[in-house]
Every structure is written in C-alpha cells, then in structure tokens.
C-alpha cells in the first residue's frame, strides 16, 4: 500500500498506479508491505531504487547503512509490538534532499502518529529530513512505552513469584489460579520467557536506531542540513537512556528467572522429601509383615487368640512412630 504525505498532510496517490509523476509537494512516500507493481511505480516516479524485503533483512552493517549517489539508504529491524507474540520485521528508509521513502512490512503506531501530526500542522515537516526526524522521535517514543509496559509487567511477575501461592490472600479459592503449584510455576516461567524474548527484540530495534542516527547525522553538512544536528543529538541521548533502562530490565528478567527456577527446585525437593518419608514409613510395617508371613511351625503368635489383631496393631504402630518423628522434625 502506498501513502503520500506533503507539508500539509495526505496527498492523493491515485496517479502512481498509472506510472504518473509524483503529485506536487509530495515529500514522504510510505510503502506498507508494497507489491512489486507499487515498488516499480515509486521507482519510476522518483528515480530511486526501492529496497526489497530481502535487501532490508541483511544483517551486515554495510548493507544497512549505505551512501547513495544522491542520498542515504538505511534499514533496521523493528519490533512488531504484538503483545501475544512480538517479532522483528525490517524497516527501510531512503532519504534524499527532496524525498523520504519508507518501506515497512507491518503496522507501526509511530507512522500513524507522524501522519496525524503532519495533517494537524503540529510539527515542522517541510523537508524529508524533518519528517525522518519525526519518525525517529515517534519510534523511540514507542520503544520507550514498550519498555515502560515491560517494567510494569515484570513488577507484577515479581509480586506473583515472591508472594507465590495457589490461593488468594483471603483464603478463598480463585478458579483462575491453577490448583497445582507446578502448573502455576510453569505459567510464570513461560511469562518470564515471553518477556525476555520481547526485550531481546526491543534491544535489536534500539541498536538499529542507535546505528542509524550517527550515520545520518554525519551526512548532515553535505546532504541534510547542519541545523538539524541538535535534534539528532537529543534522539541519541534518548536512545542511550533507553539502552540503560533495557539493561536493567534484562537483569530483572534474569533475577526473576533464577527466583522461579529456585521455587521449582524447592517444589521438587518437597516431592522427593514426601517420597522419602513414605519410603521410610513403609519400611517397618513391611519388615513386620514379612516376618509374620514366614511359615514356621514354632511361631508362638500362631496359637494366640489375639495374634492377628496384635500383628495388625504392631504394623500400625510401626508406621505411626516414624510419621510422628518426621512431623516433629517438620519434614511435612
């Protein structure tokens, strides 16, 4: 899908389908999951090469940051911000003096916000560089919001882990809470894993933007205009602060992971302890039962009228004594 933006907002892109020239005052050409025909139409109208998804997915730095004859070609992975299962998809920019071409393959709130700000006249957008900076600011803001939300989620997980119980604090059973502690711990472990995975993707997105900005800023004097350098520096400082915040969240994820694994070990130890108690309790009754199960003729208890109740009582007492001992020791 093609979307055109000028200094005053949206520009009709109908003529591009027939390979017509770009409408007047068009500065920003936004391609959202473009087809081959759409990419070819933009290339014919601008004379710029629209990078393919494969080209934007290259991981080497020389492919992500390239100097063109009349501009710059940039790419970075960007998180999809999907709460269920976030992923990374490539995001590309082609910047010249007259135009900014963006190529993306998923919806991004930052792009919608920049288009809204341009339409409302809420930001300086007379040049391609100014629109590029608006996009960088909104992308950084989106990543900051994602990290803040991640921090709140980790705080909630921390409460669940360190106040761990399968019942509510009031003692009433909550049907949403699993009855088995191991099931609850597995759910917590999966939650930590999802957040750790999302943090890794946010980190990749921040790293991509962190590489782009110095490269673009270095070209300001010859291509983009030196008066915009302070805005680049502000965005770079914002990214640096987000890097520090992300590192602290990653450390928190590792801490919560270690705590959860510790609880799982405690649960496993409890299981082995119960098995140990059962084994120890079962040994004396088994010994007595096996002794009275021997078929010797000279066993005096065989002639007792109360011999059978006596044997049963002895078996019961031999089981209760170890149970009482383990109970006193606090083993269960």
Tally of helical runs: 9
Q: How much is the average pLDDT?
A: 80
> What is the CATH architecture assignment of the largest domain?
2-Layer Sandwich
Largest sheet: 7 strands, mixed
The fraction of residues assigned to DSSP E strands is: 5-15%
Lateral arrangement of strands in the main beta sheet = 2-1-3-7-6-5-4
**Sheet/helix structural class:** alpha+beta
Low-confidence stretches: 168-173
End-to-end span in angstroms? 65 Å
Helical content stands at: 55-70%
Return the string of H and E elements.
Answer: EEEHHHEEEEHHHHHH
Q: Count all strands and give the number.
A: 7
Note the overall shape: rod-shaped
Q: In total, how many domains does the architecture comprise?
A: 2
CATH class call of the largest domain: Alpha Beta
Which homologous superfamily in CATH is the superfamily of the largest domain? CorA soluble domain-like
Computed CA radius of gyration, to the nearest angstrom: 34 Å
**Assembly state:** single chain
CATH fold topology of the largest domain: Beta Polymerase, domain 2
């Amino acid at each position: 899908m093609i979307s055109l933006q000028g200094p005053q907002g949206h520009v009709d892109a109908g003529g591009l389908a027939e390979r017509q020239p770009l409408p007047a005052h068009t500065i920003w050409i936004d391609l959202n999951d473009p087809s081959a025909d759409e990419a070819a139409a933009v290339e014919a109208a601008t004379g710029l090469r629209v990078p393919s998804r494969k080209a934007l997915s290259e991981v080497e730095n020389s492919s992500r940051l390239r100097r063109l004859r009349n501009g710059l070609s940039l790419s970075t992975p960007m998180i999809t911000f999907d709460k269920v299962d976030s992923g990374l998809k490539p995001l590309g920019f082609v910047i010249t003096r007259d135009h900014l071409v963006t190529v993306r393959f998923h919806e991004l709130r930052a792009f919608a916000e920049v288009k809204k700000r341009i339409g409302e006249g809420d930001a300086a957008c007379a040049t391609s560089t100014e629109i590029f900076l608006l996009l960088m600011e909104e992308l950084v803001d989106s990543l900051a919001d994602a990290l803040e939300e991640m921090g709140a989620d980790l705080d909630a997980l921390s409460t669940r882990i360190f106040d761990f119980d399968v019942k509510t604090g009031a003692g009433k059973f909550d049907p949403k809470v699993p009855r088995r502690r191991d099931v609850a711990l597995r759910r917590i472990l999966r939650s930590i894993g999802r957040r750790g995975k999302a943090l890794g993707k946010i980190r990749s997105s921040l790293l991509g933007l962190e590489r782009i900005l110095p490269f673009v800023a270095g070209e300001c004097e010859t291509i983009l205009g030196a008066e915009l350098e302070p805005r680049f520096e502000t965005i770079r400082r914002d990214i640096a602060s987000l890097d520090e915040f992300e590192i602290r969240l990653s450390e928190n994820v590792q801490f919560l992971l270690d705590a959860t694994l510790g609880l799982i070990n405690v649960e496993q130890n409890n299981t082995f302890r119960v098995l140990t108690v059962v084994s120890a309790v079962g040994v004396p009754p088994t010994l007595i039962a096996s002794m009275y199960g021997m078929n010797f003729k000279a066993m005096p208890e065989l002639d007792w009228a109360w011999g059978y109740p006596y044997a049963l009582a002895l078996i019961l007492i031999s089981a209760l004594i170890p149970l009482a001992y383990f109970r006193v020791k606090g083993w269960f």
